[in-house]
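Data card: per-record layout.
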Amino acid sequence: MKNLLTLFVFVAVMAIVMPVLFVGHFQPRWADAANLIRNNDAALFAPAEFPDPDTGATSTDSSFLKNPPLGYLERIAGDPSVKPGETAVRVPVLMYHHIRPMRPNFSKADREYTVTPEAFEEQMHSLWLAGYETITPDDLLSAIGKGQSSLPTKSVLITFDDGFRDQYQYAFPVLKKYHLKATFFIVSQAHSLAG
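The structure for this 195-residue chain is written out next.
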């Protein structure tokens, strides 16, 4: 019963958190920017809009991301601290599917669900430089009962869906390099919905 309750609470939290983090995208906006810069290929990626953290105005000019202003990533994410009267626990959740080299024959869905190994390492390096500490779903669940202060000040939850081999091949060594924790949701058995 406790496991079922834990699962229910985790799914409820994810249902609230995920749409907020990934509105219109399956990876963070700065990941899109890194891919645009690295690949310099407008055919693979639609132009992304980048918010100016000071004015709120958006632009498709990603050139400033080669040398972003100090604290840019933190400022576009907003203030994660809980405000007076709030009962929420605010933690960014980064969800990945494929970490693999981009191929020209990938479908649109393949491109949306793929982050290149180079972009992934850049993202993890950015988190490490910014002082983020990775947590687990259990840490998040515990914080829901204890409050935001039970988590590190800069917490982030990194997850991988489906248990693809490329996650182990490309992502695991990077996570190990930066001493980052991640949660891998492994599909142990597929079921057909056809009746």
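Known properties of this structure: Residues 13 and 122 are 28 Å apart (CA to CA). The first helix runs from residue 2 to 21.

See the next section for split statistics.
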